[in-house]
Design goal:
It is a single chain. By secondary structure, the chain is an all-alpha fold. The protein is 77% helix and 0% strand. Helix 23 runs parallel beside helix 25. The longest helix is centred in the N-terminal third of the chain and has 39 residues, at 266-304.
C-alpha cells in the first residue's frame, strides 16, 4: 500500500528514505516557524503597535542585508547541512536570550527585536532550505519531490498552528519561544545523524576559500550582481523578486491591519493566528501533495510560475472592493497557502536552471541586495501612505506591484528554457552548425581568416576556403586565388578554373594567356577549354591547331571550342575527331571524350549518333582495374542523355561491392539508369550501408527520381517503420533539408516518441524477468536499451523542424551523455517548447524510467502479455539488428 501511495505521488523506489528524512526535517522547521510567526506578530502588534510595522520593514531590510553577507560567504563554500547547523545554533541562542528579556525584563524593545529575529530567520531558512535540496537532488527529482518535501513544512506549520491556537491562553505567548528552541535542537540532531550515515550532500561542489571572509562575502555578492547583467533569467528573477516582496509585504500589512482592528487582546489574536496558520497550511499541504507536482509535470514550471502573481492581483482586487475581514482571509490564503504551494517550489526550479557554481551567489544576492531594497521601498511607501488614513492608497500600491510582478514573472518564464539550454551547451560538446560566413561579423577578420584558409596544404581545404572567399569578397578574391594556383596539381587547377568561371574576373584572362605556352599538355587542355568557354580574345584562332593535336585532352578541348563557337567550317572535322576519341582503344582518349558529355549531353545531335559507341566505351572503362578511371566513367553518367542504360545493371551492382565508399556513392547517383528491380534492390541495400555518406546518397537518389519522394519516405518512417536507426536518421535529415511541412515532421516525431515508449515497455518487461540466465535475452536487453536511445534521438531530430534547432541539438547531446543531471535539465528545456504533445511523451518516458534504470516493474498497462509476445513484436519490427536478436532469443524458448 505504501508503494502504491508512493507511486501515486511520484516517489521512486530508492527515494523513500530520502523523502522521509527531508519531510521530517522540514516538518520540524515548519512547526517552529509557525510558532515564531504567530507569536512575533501578536506580541509586536499588541505590545508595540502595528503603526510601526513600515519602520520595522526598513530595519529588517538593513539587518537582512548585513546578515545575508555572511550567508553569501558560506553558501557555496561549505555543505548545506553544515550551514544549517551554524544557523540553528545561532538561532537557539538568540531565541533563549530574547525569551529571557521578555520574561524577566520590562523593556519593550524585546518585541521589535523578536520580530526582526523571526523575519530574518524565516528568509534565511527559506533560501537555504531550497539550496539544501539542490545539493541533494537533480532537477527532475526536485521537480517531482520538492512539492512533497515542502509539504512537510506545511504539515509542520499546520501542527504548530494548532498547538499555538490551543495552548496560547494556558502557556503564555512568550513561552512559545522555548518550544521553538526545542524544535531547532531536534532539527540539529536529525541533520547530524543523517549525514553521519550518508556523508556529505552528493551534489555539493566546494568553491575556493580564502582568509578574508568579509572580502570573500562581498565578492560573492559582486559576482552575483555581475551575473545579473549577463543572464536574462537571473535579471528577470531579481526584478520579479523585487516586485514580489513589495506585493507580499504590502499584503501582509493590509491583512494584519484588519486583524489587529478585529481582535482586541494578544491572546485572541495569537489564537486566531494559530487557527489561520493551521487552516492555510492544510490547504497548502493538500495542494503540494496532490496538485503542484502534477501541474508541474503537465504544464511545466513556466506556466505554474504565473499562478501566484495572478492570485495576488485578485487578492488586491478583493481588498479594493471591500477592505474587510473576508477580503483579508483571502489575502492570507494567497500569501500563505498559494505562495507556498506554487511560487516557492517553482522559484527553486528557476534557480536550478542557473550554473551550479553561481546558484548560491544568485540566492545570496537576492537576499543581500534585492530583498532588502524591496523591503526598504515597501516600508518607506507604507509609512507615507498610512498617514493618509485611507487604506485604498496602499492597496493600490500593492495592486501596481502585483501587476509588475506578473509581467516580470512572464519574462522569467520566457528566459527559463534558453538559460538552461545555454548552460547545458557550455558543459557539452555541441557540433557547430552553419559556416564561417555566418559566424563572422568583422569583414576584415573574416577576410584574413579566409585568406589563411586558402594557404592550407590540403588542396580540398584550399578549394573550400577559395569558394567562401569568392562568395564573401568577389572583388578581392580572384587575385589571391590565382596566386595560390601555381602550387597546385593539374586536377585541382581544373576545379579552380571552373570556380573562377562564374565571376569571369579580368585577372583570370591574363593568367590563362600568360600560362598557355609554358604549360604541359594536361594543363594546356584545361586552359584552352577555359579560354574557349570565356570566348577570351583571339582564342578562336587556336581551334584549328588544337583539333589536330595528338593529345586527346587537347583534341577534346578543341571539339568543345568548335561547338561553343558554332564554327561551321571546322564542324565536320570536330565530329570526326570526337568519334575517333570515343571509339579509340586508348583509355585516355575515351576519358577525354566522356568529358564532352558534360557540355553537350542532349542539345547536340551528334551525341545521339555516338551513343552506341559510348555504351561500349563506358562499359569497358567501368571494368578496368583503376578506381580513378572507374570513378571518372561513373561521373560521366550524370550527363547521360537517355533515361535508361540497362547494360549497366551487372556492372553497377558489381561496383557497389567495392570497399571504396566514393565508388558506391557514384553508383547510387546513376542507379536510375538501371532496371526497376535492380534500382530498388540497390537503394534498399545502400540505405543500410555502414558509411553515412553512402546512406545520404541513397536517400538523395530517392529524392531525385521518385514521383513523390517526401510522401514515400514519410510512409517508410511512419507506416512501415522500415530500416535501422541510422537509415531512418539519413531519411529524416533529407526530409529536414527538403523543408517538409511541419505537420509531417510533427507526425514523425509523435510516431517515434510512441515507438520509444513501446521499446521502453519491452525493456522493462525483460528487466522484470530472469533475463540474466539466458545470454540471448541478455543481449536483447542491451539491444533494446540502445534502440531506445536511438529512437529518442530520432524523435528529437524530427523536432528540429518545429523548434529552435540549437536547443534541440543541446537536448540531444545531453540525453546522449547519459548523465542524469544533464538529462534532467534537457527535459526541462524540452518541456518549455511549443510542441507539448511530443515533449510530454518524452518527459513522461524519462521521468518514469531514466532516473532509475534498475527498477523492476511488472506493469499491467504494458502492451505485451509476456516476454515471448514481446520478442515476437521485436521480430516483426523493421530494425534488422533488433530482428536478428529477437530471432535468436526466440530460439531459446523452443
Amino acid at each position: 500500500m505504501i508503494k502504491r501511495l508512493g507511486s501515486f505521488i511520484l516517489i521512486r523506489d530508492r527515494e523513500y528514505r530520502h523523502v522521509a528524512y527531508f519531510f521530517a526535517l522540514y516538518f520540524l522547521i515548519g512547526c517552529g516557524m509557525a510558532l515564531g510567526r504567530g507569536t512575533a506578530d501578536a506580541l509586536f502588534f499588541k505590545r508595540y503597535g502595528i503603526e510601526y510595522l513600515p519602520v520595522m520593514y526598513i530595519i529588517v531590510s538593513l539587518l537582512l542585508c548585513l546578515t545575508s553577507v555572511a550567508y553569501a560567504a558560506f553558501a557555496d563554500r561549505i555543505p548545506s547541512e553544515r550551514f544549517f547547523n551554524i544557523l540553528f545554533v545561532s538561532l537557539i541562542g538568540l531565541l533563549l536570550c530574547n525569551w529571557s528579556l521578555i520574561t524577566f525584563s520590562e523593556t519593550t524593545l524585546s518585541y521589535p527585536v523578536y520580530f526582526v529575529i523571526y523575519e530574518i530567520a524565516s528568509e534565511l531558512l527559506a533560501v537555504h532550505a531550497a539550496h539544501y535540496l539542490s545539493q541533494n537532488f537533480d532537477i527532475l527529482q526536485v521537480k517531482r519531490l520538492s512539492p512533497l518535501i515542502m509539504a512537510g513544512t506545511q504539515f509542520g506549520v499546520m501542527t504548530g498552528g494548532i498547538f499555538l491556537a490551543s495552548a496560547s491562553h494556558s502557556i503564555g505567548v512568550q513561552n512559545f519561544l522555548v518550544f521553538w528552541s526545542l524544535l531547532l535542537v531536534a532539527s540539529l540532531l536529525l541533520i547530524s545523524v543523517w549525514h553521519r550515515m550518508h556523508g556529505t550532500s552528493p551534489y555539493f561542489r566546494p568553491g575556493h576559500t580564502r582568509a578574508d571572509k568579509l572580502g570573500q562575502a562581498v565578492n560573492e555578492v559582486q559576482q552575483g550582481l555581475k551575473y545579473i547583467k549577463s543572464s536574462d533569467l537571473l535579471r528577470a528573477l531579481s526584478i520579479a523578486l523585487f516586485f514580489m516582496v513589495i506585493t507580499f509585504y504590502v499584503l501582509c500589512y493590509s491583512v494584519n491591519r484588519i486583524y489587529t482592528n478585529t481582535f482586541q487582546s494578544e491572546e485572541s489574536l495569537t489564537m486566531f493566528f494559530g487557527i489561520l496558520t493551521a487552516v492555510n497550511s492544510v490547504i497548502a499541504l493538500l495542494l503540494q501533495i496532490f496538485v503542484t507536482n502534477k501541474l508541474l509535470r503537465k504544464f511545466g514550471a513556466r506556466r505554474v510560475n504565473l499562478i501566484f502573481p495572478v492570485t495576488s492581483i485578485f487578492s488586491y482586487f478583493a481588498l479594493l472592493i471591500s477592505f474587510t475581514f473576508p477580503s483579508a482571509l483571502f489575502g492570507s490564503l494567497n500569501k500563505e497557502a498559494i505562495m507556498n504551494a506554487f511560487r516557492n517550489p517553482v522559484r527553486n526550479l528557476f534557480f536550478n536552471a542557473l550554473p551550479e557554481n553561481i546558484q548560491g551567489r544568485a540566492r545570496a544576492t537576492s537576499v543581500v541586495v534585492v530583498m532588502p531594497l524591496a523591503l526598504t521601498v515597501s516600508g518607506f511607501l507604507l509609512w507615507i501612505m498610512q498617514r493618509m488614513g485611507n487604506p485604498l492608497y496602499f492597496v493600490a500600491l500593492g495592486m501596481t506591484a502585483a501587476t509588475c510582478y506578473l509581467f516580470f514573472s512572464n519574462r522569467m518564464s520566457n528566459a527559463y528554457a534558453s538559460e538552461m539550454a545555454s548552460n547545458l551547451k557550455q558543459k557539452l560538446f555541441i557540433p557547430e552548425t552553419g559556416n564561417i560566413l555566418s559566424s563572422q561579423d568583422d569583414s576584415d577578420a573574416l577576410f584574413d581568416q579566409l585568406r589563411r584558409g586558402i594557404e592550407d596544404k590540403d588542396n580540398q581545404i584550399t578549394l573550400e576556403f577559395s569558394r567562401m572567399l569568392l562568395t564573401a569578397f568577389p572583388d578581392r578574391a580572384p587575385g589571391l586565388i590565382l596566386q595560390r594556383i601555381d602550387d597546385l596539381d593539374n586536377p585541382t587547377k581544373d576545379q579552380f578554373f571552373k570556380l573562377l568561371l562564374s565571376t569571369n574576373p579580368p585577372e583570370l584572362h591574363e593568367y590563362l594567356w600568360a600560362s598557355l605556352d609554358d604549360s604541359d599538355s594536361h594543363l594546356k587542355s584545361t586552359i584552352l577549354k577555359t579560354l574557349f568557354s570565356l570566348e577570351s580574345g583571339p582564342a578562336k584562332d587556336l581551334l584549328a591547331a588544337a583539333l589536330v593535336s595528338d593529345n586527346p585532352r587537347i583534341q577534346a578541348a578543341a571539339i568543345y571550342g568548335v561547338l561553343k563557337y558554332d564554327d561551321k567550317t571546322l564542324y565536320p572535322e570536330a565530329l570526326n575527331a570526337w568519334e575517333d576519341l570515343v571509339k579509340s582503344d586508348s583509355i585516355g582518349a575515351n576519358l577525354a571524350s566522356l568529358e564532352l558529355l558534360e557540355y553537350f549531353p542532349q542539345t547536340h545531335g551528334s551525341v545521339n549518333y555516338l551513343i552506341k559507341s559510348y555504351r561500349s566505351s563506358i562499359l569497358r572503362l567501368l571494368t578496368c582495374d583503376s578506381n580513378r578511371i572507374k570513378k571518372a566513367a561513373l561521373r560521366s553518367l550524370r550527363y547521360w542523355p537517355e533515361e535508361k542504360f540497362h547494360e549497366l545493371d551487372t556492372c553497377i551492382c558489381d561496383l557497389y561491392t567495392s570497399e571504396d565508399a566514393s565508388i558506391r556513392i557514384e553508383c547510387l547517383k546513376h542507379c536510375h539508369l538501371l532496371p526497376a528491380n535492380s534500382h530498388d534492390r540497390l537503394i534498399a541495400e545502400a540505405i543500410e550501408d555502414s558509411n553515412s555518406d553512402v546512406r545520404d546518397a541513397a536517400v538523395n537518389a530517392i529524392f531525385r527520381h521518385a514521383n513523390d519522394p517526401a510522401a514515400l519516405l514519410v510512409s517508410w518512417l511512419v507506416t512501415n517503420k522500415k530500416g535501422s536507426a541510422r537509415a531512418q536518421h539519413a531519411v529524416l535529415k533529407a526530409l529536414l533539408a527538403s523543408n517538409a511541412s511541419k505537420d509531417v515532421m510533427e507526425q514523425i516525431a509523435l510516431t517515434k516518441a510512441r515507438d520509444a515508449q513501446q521499446i521502453l515497455h519491452a525493456s522493462r518487461l525483460l528487466l522484470s524477468s530472469d533475463y540474466r540466465q539466458n545470454s540471448a535475452l541478455e543481449l536483447m536487453r542491451y539491444t533494446l536499451d540502445e534502440k531506445f536511445i536511438q529512437t529518442i534521438d530520432l524523435t528529437l531530430l524530427a523536432l528540429q523542424a518545429l523548434e529552435h534547432q540549437e536547443d534541440i541539438n543541446v537536448v540531444r547531446a545531453a540525453i546522449r551523455s547519459r548523465d542524469p543531471r544533464h538529462t534532467a535539465n534537457a527535459l526541462e528545456v524540452l518541456h518549455s517548447m511549443r510542441k507539448q504533445k511530443v515533449a510530454r511523451i518524452l518527459c513522461d518516458i524519462f521521468d518514469d524510467a531514466y532516473q532509475d534504470r534498475t527498477r523492476k516493474r511488472n506493469d499491467a498497462a504494458m502492451p505485451f502479455r509476456d516476454v515471448r509476445s514481446m520478442l515476437f513484436w521485436c521480430r516483426d519490427h523493421m530494425d534488422p539488428w533488433l530482428q536478428d536478436c529477437a530471432v535468436q532469443a526466440l530460439k531459446s524458448f523452443s
